[in-house]
Write a structure and sequence with these properties.
The chain is of the alpha/beta class. Helix content is 48%, strand content 13%. It contains 12 helices and 9 strands. A 7-stranded mixed sheet has the order 2-1-3-4-5-6-7, sandwiched between helices. It has a two-stranded antiparallel ribbon with strand order 8-9. α4 links the parallel β4 and β5. The radius of gyration is 25 Å and the shape is elongated.
Length: 311
């Protein structure tokens, strides 16, 4: 099939290459990439036969909305726009209505695979009307991994990005569990081969996964992870997962805790922990550390000027 791809960054560029290797004709556009096949979005649309399929791989939010707005003025009835970025599923529903005013179809597609997708394939979760998905299916079949799994038409518009959002939330929890296990193993003198423990778990255990394989790879490259700082960003999808849980009254204690752990990683000196330290000092006379890192003894009579409550 012929397909246009807008956005030739790390993901979009590799996806375009995988499609080309699969025999598809790809017209790529990215004003910031030398690999761009055309100079304008209008030229990309002109190069495609009808019904035209344009896959958008740009950052979520305003960049995606702006690109979809431009495509709305360039495409015609029966054409399809695919949003393969990390958009919010609620935005998908708005974009679908916006494009439908010109009889342009919309498919949202959550994409997972990262830098390995070019060779291993991408896990694809899409949402949209069946006839719109069918127009893109040849591309889906090429992009997904070999075998029966790796692609799902999850439901109506928004379902693809909702599924990808939940996928990323699960990923948060799994990564946090591995991270906490690593910290506990390194905290004891009993275990002397931490990397070996994780490596042994990659076969025959119930916690084996691709994430575990990647952790072992990272530990082989840097056994103590000394080259890294314990700082982790969060994608919008992690926050959206927790918000969706609130909206639907679904308890997500593990995923929520994993998200909050990432927030903690960005604090060099946690304000909340300052309060905890101050309170421990006040009610129990526990030692505290000064801003300079020096340990100060606890108060002899904590809370001497405060009358304890009676019960």
């Amino acid at each position: 099939m012929d397909i246009g791809i807008v956005g030739l960054g790390r993901m979009g560029g590799n996806m375009a290459e995988r499609l080309r290797r699969g025999g598809h004709t790809v017209v790529g556009f990215d004003p910031h990439a030398d690999a761009s096949d055309v100079q304008t979005l209008a030229e990309l649309v002109d190069r495609l036969p009808s019904p035209k399929v344009v896959w958008v791989m740009v950052p979520a939010g305003d960049p995606t909305a702006s690109t979809i707005g431009q495509l709305r003025d360039l495409l015609g009835a029966g054409d399809v726009v695919v949003d393969g970025g990390n958009s919010n599923y609620k935005d998908d529903q708005l974009h679908a209505v916006y494009l439908a005013e010109r009889n342009i179809q919309f498919v949202d597609c959550g994409v997972s695979g990262g830098v390995w997708g070019l060779t291993e394939g991408y896990a694809l979760m899409c949402g949209g009307e069946a006839d719109a998905v069918a127009k893109v299916q040849p591309a889906f079949d090429t992009l997904k991994p070999q075998g029966d799994s790796g692609f799902v038409h999850a439901g109506a518009v928004g379902a693809g990005h909702f599924a990808k959002m939940v996928h990323n939330g699960i990923e948060y929890g799994m990564m946090q569990a591995y991270a906490e296990g690593y910290e506990l193993l390194t905290a004891t003198d009993i275990v002397t081969d931490v990397e070996g423990c994780f490596s042994s778990w990659t076969q025959g255990t119930v916690i084996r996964s691709w994430l575990l394989d990647l952790l072992v790879r990272a530990l082989k490259e840097d056994q103590n992870l000394s080259k890294l700082r314990g700082y982790a960003e969060d994608s919008g999808e992690g926050r959206w997962t927790v918000q969706a849980a609130v909206d639907h009254a679904v308890p997500l204690p593990v995923i929520t805790a994993a998200l909050f752990a990432r927030f903690s990683s960005r604090q060099e000196d946690s304000p909340a922990m300052k309060v905890v330290a101050a309170l421990r000092n006040q009610f129990g006379g526990h030692a505290v550390q000064s801003a300079a890192g020096e340990t100060e003894k606890g108060a002899d009579a904590p809370g001497a000027d405060v009358t304890p409550p009676t019960s």
